[in-house]
Amino acid sequence: MLRRTGVIHTVITGLLALLFWVPATVAAAAPPAPAADGECAVLAPGASPAAERAISAACAEVAAGTWYTWGGGHGPQPGPTYGQVDPSDPASEHDPERFGFDCSGLVRHAYARATGSDILNGAASTQYYTHRAAERFTADQGLAPLRPGDLLAWGTSWELTHIALYLGDGKMVEARQSGTKIMVSDVRLNSGYIGAVRVDTGPVTGHVFRTWGTGVWTKAEPALGARRVYAFPGPTTIRVRCQTHAEEVTSDGYTNDVWSYLPDYDAWMTNIYIQGAAWLDGVSDCRDL
User: Fold this and answer.
1) pLDDT class of 37 with cuts at 50, 70, 90
2) Are 74 and 82 in contact (CB under 8 A)?
3) Distance (Å, whole) CA 133 – CA 227
4) What is 49-199's CATH number, 3.90.1720.10, 3.10.290.10, 3.30.160.140, 3.40.50.150?
5) In 3D, which of 51, 2, 3 has the Cα closest to residue 165?
6) How is the chain split into domains, by residue range?
7) Which residue of 15, 17, 199, 255 pairs with 250 in a disulfide if CB–CB is 3.0 to 4.6 A?
């Protein structure tokens, strides 16, 4: 039989325990597990919703085991198509039998699925030099400033040879070459990588024009002797912020002293190679801004 004092002591102890009870510290949530080797997904923060949808569309092709096929994905509408033989690549002999994408066909398809519009129709150079660029990155900047969904490019400024979608964490999804399927790879920074571009999927603003000519260089200043920035491999759609009179240029039978500032490249271009009047209609003088 318990003594009364023992019961009272037990009750008081219990009440004190309730009065001064402090909840135990909740263990911190475990960080996300690292991505499995070869996993196709958004692997880093910072991607826009459209970029995430583009990655999802490209990764669906990885999961489906879709083939690389030379020229694939460049039909009237975005999506896989049968390819063709690349005369320079014996491995492409079966590409006409394979339903899939080449590198730019995959990028086109991914962003079309992401936006509902065919905003990146064209070859790798057309996509890299898109007038829908939110930001551009040089090879010297490496991967640090990149976000998932950015376009990675290889080749030279005037001749691009490959393009892929960045996933984050040093990985990319790509349609690499004949004889392989759409895959996840480590980003190859030491094999002709020239930089990246972040796609702006919103409405296009500013003055839009088209260039002509091939291998036309843009310059850091409105002068022929200024540092070269980018070379457009062929006719390219550009946005012009303003124009100004500067060094006179004579080229391809034309003479003009007007240069236009291209905000997407932080560079200048002689108006000789911009389709339109010598002084572009509707574009302000840079000195008035």
Assistant:
1) low
2) no
3) 22
4) 3.90.1720.10
5) 51
6) 49-199, 207-288
7) 255
